[in-house]
Design a protein that fits this description.
single chain; alpha+beta; 8-stranded mixed β-barrel
Length: about 190
């Protein structure tokens, strides 16, 4: 009995190699999200319905990934808002309310291909005086100036409360490397235009 060898094209082998690499990379990324116990990892896999319309966009000139990022208002457990942008905690104020603490949470890592991807990755680099800009759907711009950053425990709900005598914005993300605490950057309203 004779055996025949078939020739495999170099392009075909290369194609199989690239396809295998892409599949493995995707599985590693999803696995990493579950490994770090990202509570929203399942939202990336199972939830497809986008959140409602955003009433605000967020821009932080010192952060390269935060340029007109949608801000969706919802409860703290709103997975779709955090998946597709940032979340304005519905129990906190809006920028047009005097004395409000506009509390906005965003992912440190987020999900590739969405506006949440690395959105607050470099939040810890903001310094006193850096600008944070919220833009309402009517075009009104609320400009804030950073005045402090702190690290708190996840259950420290006092941070969402208004600060007497100030109109502020609070930006929240998780700390690195284990996401066990929350990094909060606060900025005071300095201009409305």
């Amino acid at each position: 009995m004779r055996t025949y060898r078939t020739r495999t094209s170099g392009f075909r082998v290369f194609g199989y190699l690239v396809a295998t690499l892409l599949i493995v990379s995707g599985l590693v990324l999803v696995g990493y999200s579950f490994l770090i116990r990202d509570p929203f990892a399942s939202a990336a896999v199972f939830e497809q319905e986008p959140p409602g319309n955003s009433t605000l966009t967020l821009t932080v000139p010192e952060m390269k990934r935060v340029d007109h990022v949608p801000v969706y208002t919802g409860p703290f457990y709103d997975k779709t808002a955090l998946h597709d942008g940032t979340l304005h905690l519905e129990s906190t104020g809006f920028p047009w309310q005097t004395g409000a603490n506009v509390y906005i949470a965003g992912h440190r890592m987020g999900f590739p291909g969405t506006r949440s991807y690395l959105v607050f990755w470099d939040l810890d680099t903001l310094q006193a005086g850096d600008k944070v800009i919220l833009t309402a759907t009517n075009g009104t711009r609320y400009t804030y100036s950073v005045y402090r950053s702190i690290i708190i425990n996840p259950d420290a709900s006092y941070i969402t409360q208004p600060v007497p005598g100030k109109s502020i914005i609070s930006l929240q993300t998780c700390t690195l490397p284990d996401y066990s605490q929350r990094l909060i950057v606060q900025a005071e309203l300095t201009d409305v235009s």
